[in-house]
Specification:
globular, 2 helices, two-stranded antiparallel sheet, alpha+beta
Length: 95
């Protein structure tokens, strides 16, 4: 899967950086939740094809808003932890 093909699969709002990716999605129904998991799986497939490792310990789920999603998201077979605070590039987001 080339990067351009990956972008076609990843229809959610995302930002790529030198060594990471941020995926943001507003989840209002199960379809949105499934789309996020599909994007995570596409990221894994892309990284595997290019023989890139994914530092799973750097990934997490941060719920912002009144409704929390009960679905557990995974990268490969590893569940992503749900956190109430996240620091990235010196900026902390706390809910």
């Amino acid at each position: 899967m080339t990067l351009s093909n990956f972008w076609l699969v990843l229809t959610l709002k995302s930002n790529f950086f030198a060594d990471g990716v941020k995926i943001c999605v507003k989840i209002v129904n199960i379809t949105d939740s499934s789309a996020l998991q599909k994007a995570l799986s596409a990221l894994v497939a892309w990284a595997d094809e290019w023989q890139l490792s994914i530092s799973i310990y750097k990934y997490c789920v941060l719920h912002i808003g009144k409704v929390t999603v009960t679905r557990q998201f995974h990268i490969k077979d590893s569940p992503l932890p749900v956190v109430s605070s996240y620091c990235d590039l010196g900026i902390t987001i706390t809910i």
